[in-house]
Amino acid sequence: MKFFVDSADIEEIGELADTGLIDGVTTNPSLIAKSGRNFLDVIKEICTVVDGPVSAEVTALDSATMLKEAAVLRGLAENVTIKVPLTMDGLKTCKALTDDGASVNVTLCFNANQALLAAKAGATYISPFIGRLDDMGIDGMELIEEMREIYDNYDFETEILAASIRNINHVKSCALIGADVATVPGSVIKQLAKHPLTDKGLEGFMADWAKTGQSIL
Ligand code: G3P
User: Fold this and answer.
1) Ligand 1 pocket member 163 (CB < 6 A)
2) Annotation says 194 is catalytic
3) How does pLDDT run across 196-211, given as a tens digit for each residue?
């Protein structure tokens, strides 16, 4: 499973990119607003820090204007993925862009029929929002399962990019189901490496190593 960072915070992205564990980045208008920075500048900067796909979302609601915005965003860097909303206009834009060789992430997907349409529109990625479904008392993971089954039934190449991930259990379930990508907040990525027994074990090893009085270097 690929890991994207769901963030527009360049410091956080840089720190995680340095680990070599990150395959891409997703942003959205809310994350851009949170960064307090200019949208185009932030995307350009992220694209220099990360080699993989960087999702930048159009903000128009009609296809004609989405396409104009997409042209601007595609001009920022080679690795920009255009993010479009899961509306009829977004799907139309997706089809036009992927026919033209662009990488497209269809976002705000909340059911399997929407995911089916995104695949038919040739989406590179489809972003189901797990956490926001959980918030409504609907099991977000069931959607990932349904999507995996439908996409496999027809050999759709669209990658399932699990989004709105809120905790480490979401990540594990996505990996078990076979999501292609998980876009994860930096704080959750860091938690994935944590286990109290790892900390305790390391503490013990360090204490015993100190007793030997040795040093590797
Ligand atoms: O990038 C979209 C997505 O991950 C949003 O997450 O936590 O705002 O539902 P959240």
Assistant:
1) yes
2) no
3) 999 999 999 999 999 9
